[in-house]
Amino acid sequence: MSANQRALRESVKRLIVDRGLPPGALLPTELELMRELEVGRNPLREAMKALEAQGIVDIRHGYGTYVGGVSLSGLEAGLAFRGALSVRGDLTDIRELLEVREVLEAGLTSRVLAAGDAVELDVLESAVRTMEERAHNGEFAPEADWLFHETLYRPLGNDLVLELLRVFWRVFRSLDDDLPRGEGETPAVIAGWHRDILEALRRRDEPALHAAVEAHFRGIRARVSGSAARFG
């Protein structure tokens, strides 16, 4: 990427920020941008396509160009690729990603407790029961697993945290079949991790909640170090 193209992309982003344009807002027309940024049509179109790939703008042909939602899909794709390479290597990248996820989730446990009645215990119970019922048949329940984590942290009101957790969870799920397994990894064990978290939360027992979350991640760490556990 040339210095001119890099500067042009930064100019478009600065224009969006300086004007306080929120996601979904309509940007000036191509001609208006060309005049304001003092740039030709082709370099501007190249810059806008690159910004669209990053989720910064949303080009709707025949309607105009809008400020994008800036999703984390690019981050997810990059982490999944690094993880896939790591599976065939020494698992370092996967362990590092797991550490980031653990720091984030473990650091939020006190805030989850403080959320009180905003945490939907009935939804958490339903998710755990689904995991337990599927476990009786020797089956994993990934959809219930994510529902549990999503329900646990949604009351915190931080959409970025939730989106990051979703990215981490989906990356791990994408690698699940390629990681080593052991005799101790069973659906019942994973359901038990989540049951312990729920019961500690129900009792509003902060030490027990921290211990349950730690046990959950200790099991996952065992999986990526080649021992017997499974992503949860």
- The end-to-end span amounts to 40 Å
Q: In which order are the strands of the major sheet placed?
A: 1-2
Q: What's the helical proportion of residues?
A: 55-70%
Radius of gyration: 22 Å
Order of helices and strands: HHHEEHHHHHHHH
Q: Based on CA inertia axes, which overall geometry fits? A: elongated
Poorly predicted runs: 227-231
Q: What structural class do the secondary elements suggest?
A: mainly alpha
Overall mean confidence score, pLDDT: 89
Largest sheet: 2 strands, antiparallel
Number of beta strands: 2
Tell me the fraction of residues in β-strands, as a range: under 5%
Number of helices: 11
Task: Report on the architecture of this protein.
This protein is mainly α. It is 67% helix and 3% strand. It is built from eleven helices and two strands; from the N terminus they run αααββαααααααα. It has helices spanning 3-18, 30-37, 41-53, 73-87, 92-107, 109-114, 121-136, 142-153, 159-175, 187-203, 206-224, and strands spanning 57-60, 64-67. Strands 1-2 form a two-stranded antiparallel ribbon. Strand 1 and strand 2 form a beta hairpin.
Outline of the structure:
The protein has 232 residues and is mostly helical.
